[in-house]
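Question: Send over one sample?
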Amino acid sequence: VLHSFISFQKETLTFLDQLEQMDMSKMKVKTMIRFVRLRIADALRVLVYHNARHIQQAQRALKS
């Protein structure tokens, strides 16, 4: 699980490097909710908070 998480983080960093050269204000991504699209910056914000939650869950699991 940890290996998969780290691999995903590396892929995310590569993606962020590519975004650095693009105009993110014009980019939108589809969500799993039908007809809902987010600006790429908002989608990345959701991703960061989602990952932070997983880190907190892992820290709690290690304590117990």
Remarks:
- The mean pLDDT is 89.
- The longest helix spans residues 40-63.
